[in-house]
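sry for the spam today, last one i promise. struct tokens for design, 174 residues
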């Protein structure tokens, strides 16, 4: 798995015991369970990212047959990209071919939930950051912008409206 220090912290929190970053804790059922669960989580994140980016790529291919510039706005609670940027690079290659600009809006739900469980909210900080980074990367590689929505989002939609209304095409005749 990725960051060994994060794994050590998870073992300390879940199994209520300390291990060093070099100690594998081999044979300990709790540590084995934490490692299995972590690997399953990474696999699920990878599958989710591949499925979601494949769907966006399929939409880009369909939009390529529609003439003229197009704007696609993806509103999402996040997109985690576990290391491999190939799916996003595929979308980035399809966007100019389809004449699509992809904007992403991250719906911030990190403030939702039980205020009594603040420890879980703090631990989710890394997940929130990874989710936002995935959307930011996707928009940045697809000629668009990334926005974080907190509250009503009127400003975000006003900005998108202004950006979409200010498209200029220049042509040069030889």
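last one done:
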């Amino acid at each position: 798995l990725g960051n060994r220090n994060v794994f050590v912290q998870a073992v300390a929190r879940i199994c209520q015991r300390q291990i060093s970053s070099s100690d594998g804790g081999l044979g300990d059922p709790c540590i084995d369970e934490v490692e299995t669960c972590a690997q399953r989580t990474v696999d699920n994140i990878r599958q989710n990212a591949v499925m979601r980016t494949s769907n966006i790529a399929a939409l880009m291919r369909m939009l390529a047959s529609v003439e003229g510039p197009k704007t696609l706005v993806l509103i999402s609670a996040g997109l985690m990209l576990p290391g491999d940027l190939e799916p996003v690079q595929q979308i980035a290659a399809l966007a100019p071919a389809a004449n699509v600009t992809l904007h992403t809006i991250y719906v911030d739900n990190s403030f939702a939930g039980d205020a009594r469980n603040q420890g879980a909210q703090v631990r989710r900080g890394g997940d929130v950051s990874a989710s936002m980074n995935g959307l930011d990367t996707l928009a940045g590689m697809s000629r668009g912008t990334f926005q974080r929505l907190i509250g009503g989002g009127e400003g975000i939609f006003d900005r998108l409206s202004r950006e979409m209304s200010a498209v200029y095409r220049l042509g040069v005749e030889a």
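The chain has five helices and three strands. ok im logging off now
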